[in-house]
Amino acid sequence: MADVLFIVNPASGAGRAGQEWAGIASWLSSTGLSYEAAMTTRPLEATEIAERAVRESRPAVVAVGGDGTLNEVVNGFFHNGAPIPTTSRLAMVPLGTGGDFRRTLKIPLDPKAAIEILRTGVARRLDAGCVSYRTADGGTGVRHFINIADAGLGGEVVHRVNNGGKRLGPATFKLASFLALMTWKNKPMNVVVDGVAHDLKAMQIVIANCQYFGGGMRMAPTASPTDGVFDVILVGDAGKLETIRGIGTVSRGAHLDEHNPHYQLMYGKRISVSCEDRVRIDLDGEDPGFLPALFEIQPGAIEFITPR
Description:
With 308 residues, the protein is α+β, with helices and mostly antiparallel strands. The protein folds into two domains: 4-127, Rossmann fold, CATH 3.40.50; 129-299, Sandwich (Tumour Suppressor Smad4). The protein is built from nine helices and 17 strands. It has a six-stranded antiparallel beta sheet with strand order 8-7-17-15-10-11. Strands 14-13-12-9-16 form a five-stranded antiparallel beta sheet, with helices on one face. A four-stranded parallel beta sheet has the order 2-1-3-6, sandwiched between helices. Helix 2 (45-55) packs across helix 3 and helix 6 (153-163) packs across helix 7 (171-183). The chain starts with a strand and ends with a strand. The model has no long low-confidence stretch (mean pLDDT 92).
C-alpha cells in the first residue's frame, strides 16, 4: 500500500485543479514518493475515500483542491462527531478557488513546494470544530471544519459561490460578497459563548480556528489552530456602505485594532447561535445548512503536516 494518498478534486477551481493535476502527475513519480491518487467524481466522495484511508492508518492523506475539498477530507478523519483512532496525517496541495486555510499555515501555492512539505514538514496537532446544525429538510446534521465557520452574511456568500461558477477564481468571492450584501438584512441573533449569552442584531457571527476566509479576508487575525479555543467575532448591525468601505481594513486584519463598535472579539470552546429567521451557515466554504447551530472545539483532533 502506498504511503501517500492524494485525494484530487478535478472540479476544484472551476476545473483548473484537474488540469493542473495532470501536469503534476507527469513529474510526481520522479520525486520517489510512494503514492497513489484517487480522483473524486461527486460531492462528499472525498470524505468517503479519506475515511477508508484513515481507518487503514495511511501515513499521509493529502487534499488536492480548494478549501471545500480540504473540508471533505477533514470530515473523513471523524465519524459520528468523534475523531477516528488513526496514525494518518493530513496534508494539502492547494489548487482551488478560495485558498484561505493555507494562508494561516503558510502552505505554498507552488505544487512542487507543497508536495515537498510531505518530506520535510513537521506534523502538528491542530484543533478542529464540530458543528451540529439544522439541515434543509429540518433534520440535524453534524460536520467538522478546520478553518472558519460563520452564520449570516458569510453563509449567503458561500451559497452564491457554490451555486454559481467559480471561473473568476478568487474574484468569485468578491463578486458574490457584493451581491449577497446588497440583498442581506441584519438579523436579531442569540449567541452563547461558553455559557454567556449575547443578544444582538448581527450581520454575521464568525467562529474562527484559523485567520482567513472569503478569498483572503483576514477576519480573525489572532486565531491559532493550536490554542484550544475559537476566536469568536460578533459582527453587529453594520450598514452596507460602511461594510464596503471597511473591506480593505478587514483584508489587512486591522478591523479589530480600530475599536469599531460593530466588531466584538471573544474566545470560546462551545458556541451556540440561533435566530428565528432562516440563516445559512458556512463551514470552510461549504454551506451545509442553517441555524440553530452548536460549534464545539475538539483540541488537537487532527495531525497535519505543516511547513517547518
